[in-house]
Amino acid sequence: MQQTFELTITVNGTRYQRRVEPRMLLSDFLRHDLGLTGTHVGCEHGVCGACSVLMDGQPIRSCLIFAVQAHEHEITTVEGLGTRDNLHPIQEAFQEAHGLQCGFCTPGILTTVKAFLEQNPNPSEEEIREALSGNLCRCTGYQHIIEAVQLAAEKMRA
Amino acid sequence: MKPAPFEYYAPETIEEALSLLAKHGYDAKVLAGGQSLIPMMNFRLVQPSILVDLNRIAALGYIRTGEDGGLRIGAMTRHRQVETSPLAAKRAPLVHAAMSKIAYPQVRTRGTFGGSISHADPSAELPALSLALNGKFRLRRQDGERWVPASEFFLGLFTTALEADELLVEASLPPMPPRSGWSLQEVARRPHDFALMGVAAVVTLNEQGVCTEARLVFISAGDRPMAAERAAETLKGQAPAPEVLREAAEIASSQEIDPSSDIHATAEFRRHLANVLTRRALEQAFQRAAENKQEG
Amino acid sequence: MDRKLIGKRVVRNEDPRLLTGHAQFVDDVQLPGMLHAAFLRSEYAHARLLKVDVSKARQHPGVVAVFIAEDMGKDWQPGPPLVSPPPTVKDVVFHSRRQVPLAKDKIRHAGEAIAVVIAESRYIAEDAVEEIEVEYEPLPVVLDLEKALEADSPLVHDDLESNLAARLSQKKGDYEAARQQADVIIKRRIVIERGAAAAMENRGIVAHWDAQSEHLTIWDTTQAPIPIRNGTAARLGLSEHQVRVIAPYIGGGFGPKIMMFYPEEMVIPWAAMKLNRPVKWIEDRRENFYATTQERGQIHHVEMALTRDGRVLGLKDDFLHDTGAYDPYGLTIPLNTQSHNMGGYDIRNYSSEFKVVFTNRIIATPVRGAGRPHGIFVIERMMDAAARELGMDPVELRKRNLIPPEAFPYEHQIIDQAFAPLILDSGNYKAVVEKAVEMIGYEKFLKEEQPRLRREGKYVGIGIVPFIETTGVGPYEGARVTVEASGKVNVTTGIGTQGQGHFTSFAQVVAEQLGVKVSDVRIVTGDTSEFHWGTGTFASRGAVVAGNAVHAAAKSVRKKVLKLASKVLEAPEEELELGDGMVRVADIPQKAISLGELAVLANPLRGAVEPGTEPGLEATSYFGPQYGATAFGTHAMILEVDPETMMIKIRRYVVAEDCGTVLNPLILEGQIHGGVSMGLGNAYYEKLHIDENGQLLNASFADYLLVSSTEMPHIEVAHLETPSPLNELGAKGVGEAGAIPVPALFAQALENALSDRALEILEMPLSPNRLFELLKER
After folding, report:
1. A69 vs chain B: nearest CA distance in angstroms?
2. Which residues, including other chains, have CB under 8 Å from residue A106's CB and lie 6 or more apart?
3. Where are the beta strands (DSSP E) in B84-219?
4. How far is the C-alpha of A72 from the C-alpha of C301, rounded, in Å?
5. Rounded to 5, what percent of chain B is helix, strand, coil?
6. Which of B126, C52, C194, C210 has the CB geometry, 3.0–4.6 Å to B116, for a possible disulfide?
7. Cα(C129)–Cα(C270) distance, rounded to whole angstroms?
8. Do B138 and B168 form a contact (C-beta atoms < 8 A)?
9. pLDDT tens figures, B73-128
10. Which chain C positions have a beta carbon within 8 Å of B189's beta carbon?
11. What number of other Cβ atoms are within 10 A of residue C350's Cβ?
């Protein structure tokens, strides 16, 4: 019989209790058990960054952690930023600067950028490039993403 | 790409973890940050039957000054903690400077010092830097513990001195003497990739500007971190003139490393890079040594 | 025409959904009772399949079914030919061999699907895949294009005499005669290798058979939902109206998502019907490297004939093209190469024969550029070789040969990928080249900066490469524009969308005509129940072909609006103005009616209707161009290389682009930036490494290197506009443009940086290791 664990987890401020197999990846748990499909899965080996979420405020790969390991931790996904009618300043900036095309990599970038700008509110272009190094984007060539992060930093400082 | 099933244990103390390892031996695999292990599990290249997860053991996460003035790092200390630690910057600047070269921000949030050392990937920075700094590791088992110097810890590709029932709990990195300098030079396809070739140099000068100590350790240059001892020996007793550095680089790259060929680089290109990078590393390390009167 | 919205930097309508994680991608579809599929794929690239034992896997707890080829019975059929057989060009050879749903008897590439496990979860399905036992008889593999055509080569398809899949020659003028007159003949062998498209979203399919209504719904990451619907209906013996294909938000396409039918597209809907339960299959990244189509393998033998003063008299290019194990996509890629081999140059004599070769590799189908980067790489490498040989400035040599503005439309006297005559519709090529030259500061760099940097010990080089891109090909697309009672406008079109901003650029086109806000125009694409005529998103044609269909439909609706408003407001149509969602009588602002009210009046619930009128403010239009519009651009870069470590840094990158009328510069620039990043990958980072057994050695993002934020340079873009005469919007496509010239440009700049080493680059992609080897040979 497969071992299962009772998991208590806070996602975007909501507490959830679920029973999971230990091998269930956090990315699959968020997407399929909790229905928070904003977190995307692009490689499942920790390189593309699409599945990046925040755990206790720090960016992680949700494909490189088992859901059971997030027991009693706080997770923030893209759904925990703004809403369609009330976008987070980072989301606003990404729309204004055209920082997304297909939008598949975007949720992982937004969460990563949120943690980054909280730690470094006035970053240089070099620092932004470094902060984004773990988020692959095949559409944008990164330029508009970098401009969006600069714009978001301005908005958040204001 | 989903991992195969496994039994999972998440001990909260070191003792519990050690007792699990004693019980399950080689059937158990230790899960630290998981940033190397979980990708291999997702690819099903590794299918451990039992996972012992160390992430609940709070006692394994710390950075503190050692009795020798160096740095003590708990095995579950995250890369990100080292990267942002002023203490690490002061006591082990070489290690601190390397942190931003390790993978990506998201991986550094989870990845751990002890995990990287225990994984013993010859392409990784921390094993090589530990060796360059004459570091040592504290290994615990249920009935005792031992310290193993880095020079005796890395035995081969992903192979270490750790026994099945042992856990690496701490790394100790001694301080560099006064008038020491260091450098880490790497060439990677993209800055955050594993290096095609890398070298860490740690050198010490006397008051006359003559080299008294030198260590050169290479990354991606063999089945483990590769120390170039003969090359280092040629530096000792010499002022760091360009021809001296060139000779050391030549010896290290042609005789003391054993790089292999893979899809990214042939052994020949790697030796060439080792030569270039050794020269550059020594130049920078001696420069720093000349400027650095402090212990550091 | 006075344009209020077209050409403006309008932010995108689709973004709020994408930015908040609410846009639905295929893997987000969750249905009650849904099962999950995983495929067993061949470990060998070429083998006889002796035995497949699925008995253990079938017993695995949680497994619902395991299917192999034999289980499909008469439903086991190869995929249809995607692009109709080639035309009657003289002496054309074409052997159509198409992929199968599950391999039977023989394996032709590593990763070919052998069995599918359908289980309660993907985890369980993958567990059971490991329990399938397969007996193979390995066969010698066919990988090398040149050896594949030798008489003693093993055969990918045993029923053919050789591995030749196709052969086609085209001629313009008389190359042999031109050769006789030439002062200089330059010959080179140029090798281009495969890369992956690597969209961030892997492929995926969810199929749901509703037995009560007898309807099959398929969510598919396809760039061509309508052909998938039609083909699926035919395969499964259903009416086209019983099948609905939805291509929801797609996480990047770049070409391979228009291959059809992928084996999974044949198997998953079939299995869902067979089991009467919804089935989901999501490709994982490793599968993507083994099971999604790739591109770019070619070997060229090329010859250029020139006069001493740099006039190109003729070009001859015979090349081999790697189609992989099957050739469902016909000759699109090599025809594109043949069409781009002459670049934007006025070359009067041309001779080209290509041979398409079967190999034991995954099928080749278009990837962003689709044969065009190869053609441009070949001609531009030859131009650089010629410039060196003649001692001429490479930019000057190019300018001397560009097609002059008065020569358009310029007929090449060969056929293009659409089997239509290759005609370059319009352009002002020299102006674009000069713009790039000016932006990068070419003269100043060569005269002042480069010598100074060289004295500082830095190796910095410059490159300038012009290119054409044939875009916007037929046959056609359609669109329906409807003004709803709310006053908002709904637009449906058949093409799929994968991030190109169609939700916004099409809305701009409509809003321009109807005087509404861009955000009040809702676009529906990629759902066959909404619009079911069309072909798909490929060949940089979305904005051109679907965009013009949308434009035409919007204009028809505008006419209906004016006609009805004229009646209601009792004013002649010429005096009416559309704006802010209202129709007003000019100069009498109080005489006005909203579009919503008009929509209600156009669709009354009671009352008599004049004979011949249609309900609603709605129109459907189609657009099919006579032939494709051709865009032109020039990229320039300044690149620094460390000749000791082979590490490179791009110091500047400029793009001068003429893709006709610009619909939205923000979106356009985004397309170019993305294209350049992919092109840089093709130049220096992305290579599929395959061993002598046909095994891919880097089926992961750890080893297949996409350009990331730390390598990508900042790009400066300038737009020039030569509207296409072939469509009302004057648009030309741009989706692939960014990628096309980059490898040629990179090679040129690198050679320039290392000019004292007499380096010559005749291959793409390069890598640090390969550059090291090339420099060592010097």
Report:
1. 8
2. A78, A94, A99, A100, C18, C19
3. 136-141, 144-149, 154-156, 159-160, 167-173, 180-188, 195-205, 211-219
4. 64
5. 40, 25, 35
6. B126
7. 19
8. yes
9. 999 999 999 999 999 999 999 999 999 999 999 999 999 999 999 999 999 999 99
10. 685, 705, 767-768
11. 22
Q: Which residues of A touch C24 (CB under 8 A)?
A: 37
Measured in degrees and rounded to the nearest 5, phi and psi for residue A38 equal -65, -30
Q: pTM (2 decimals)? A: 0.97
Q: How far apart are the CA of C29 and the nearest CA of chain A, in angstroms?
A: 9
Q: Which amino acid is at C29?
A: V
Question: How many angstroms separate the CA of residue C518 from the nearest CA in chain A?
Answer: 15
Q: Which two tokens stand for residue C352?
A: 């080209």
User: What strands, in cross-sheet order, belong to the sheet with B211-219?
Assistant: B180-188, B195-205, B211-219, B226-227
Name the residue among C456, C458, C493 with its Cα closest to residue C478. Answer: C493
CA–CA dist C735, C436 (Å, integer): 20
Give Cβ neighbours of residue A79 (< 8 Å, ≥ 6 apart). A12, A36, A38, C20, C21, C22
The dihedrals phi and psi of C6, each to the nearest 5 degrees, come to -65, 130
Spans in chain C with pLDDT lower than 50: 1
C-beta atoms of B44 and C710 within 8 A: no
CB contact (8 A) between residue A22 and residue B55? no
- How far from B206 is each of B69, B90, B230, B240, C47, CA to CA, in Å? 20, 22, 20, 12, 67
Digitized pLDDT (tens) for each residue of chain A, 158 residues in all: 689 999 999 999 999 999 999 999 999 999 999 999 999 999 999 999 999 999 999 999 999 999 999 999 999 999 999 999 999 999 999 999 999 999 999 999 999 999 999 999 999 999 999 999 999 999 999 999 999 999 999 999 98
pLDDT of res. C86: 66
Residue C748 token pair = 């040129």
Binding-face residues of C in 172-211 toward A, CB within 8 A: 198-202
The label of the residue with tokens 């664990």 reads A5
Q: What is the ipTM of this complex?
A: 0.98
CB B44 to CB C126 under 8 A?
Answer: yes
Interface of B with C in 216-275 (CB under 8 A): 263-266, 269, 272-273
Of B2, B189, B193, the CB nearest to C126: B2
A64 touches chain B (CB under 8 A): yes
Interface residue of B197, B273, B278, B280 to substitute, partner C, most C CBs within 10 Å: B273
114-153 in A: which are within 8 Å (CB) of C?
A: 128-130, 132-133, 135-146
User: What are the structure tokens assigned to C163, written together?
Assistant: 């591995």
Do A21 and C123 form a contact (C-beta atoms < 8 A)? yes
